[in-house]
Amino acid sequence: LPPPGMEAKVLGLFTALVRDMGIGEAEWALSLAGLAVRAERRKVFALGSMTVEGGWDESAAGLVDVPGRLEMTDLMVVNQDSGLPITIDSLVTDTLAKDMDLASIRSMAVLAMDSYAVDERPPEPGALQAIADAMMYGGGHTDVSVKGVMVGTEQAPQGGLGSVALRIEMDPAPSGADVTNGSLSFQMDGLDAGPMAAAAVPAELLPGGAGIGLAATNLPVPAMMRLQMDVGSLMEGTEPQLGEDEVMALVMRHQPSFDLETVSLEAPAYTISGSGRIKTDPTSPVLFGGGVSLKVQGLDDALAVVQERARIDPSMQQAVPALVALRGLGRVEQPGTHIFDLVLSPDQGILINDVPAAMLMMQGPGPGPGPGPRSEEPMKPGQMGPVQ
Questions:
Q1: Which residues face 190 on adjacent strands?
Q2: Phi-psi group of 154: left, alpha or beta (phi > 0 → left; psi -120 to 50 → alpha; rest → beta)
Q3: Which of 65, 158, 202, 223 is deepest in the core (most CB within 10 A)?
Q4: What is the pLDDT of residues 1-31, one digit of tens each?
């Protein structure tokens, strides 16, 4: 048996080690190349190269940054259902978890060990909860980039994608803060939907590119995380549940807002671009207010494409009156350009150029073929008519 008091001394030394020792800085990397998997002599998976990198870096304040990177080139996977190969020239993900509060986690561990050393009992939940409530919640970002996607083979292509890039970012939240800010950006170019999509929809209408840029403020993410850090429930073995009512209460209290800095959609026949701002509005039945302004160029060209296709394709005929109604609703600022201002109204719901969307749906798309004003002539809200 160990001498009396030895166990307490060892635990005390370990507690001091946990309290005072940092994890410092580290980096690591792993790479491989030339991987291939075959099934019944057929290649079903291939990878030209892959590199994985990671590490950590702790500051003097006990805050830790954890970066990571994954890069793959010349990736090929055979779809098990269709049997079609999918090839990707490159796929890269970059991540960073920033300012993770290791110091607070270390303090909670030391408190638990000190309590056990004194009376062999866990600490009071309130003492641990006080540390959890004062924690700093880290932020960071995730970047994903994919280039050169092809479905099928060069002899029988079934679609593809030139490139896509996604970034999600969130700011760290200091101790005591209930809200933080974040952003999202997405860009896609060179989309080829393939021959099956082109057979169902005119190729001139299929989008080849899209993008969005969104900035969010007053996101109550730290407050939600604190609600889930219910130490008493965790010590009892019950995982805290964050219900819909609690989430909505936080949203109404902090009223986050979302700035749509840019949104775009590009197709051969038309382009859509816009921006706007959506904000929480507790007084509104839909709980949000604000709006988005969209500029559509080439709406007349798109309508002409649909009308031509509808002559031989009955499935496209229903789209004609819908586009006619949409064109009639647009505000023409210059030939070939239609403006659509979408507003969330607390009294009338969604307004499109000051006209309630519910009223438009009740009215229907309007009369069938017949003469109507040309797009160069400004149209009053609700006025409809097909392209001549």
A1: none
A2: alpha
A3: 223
A4: 556 555 555 656 656 666 667 788 999 999 9
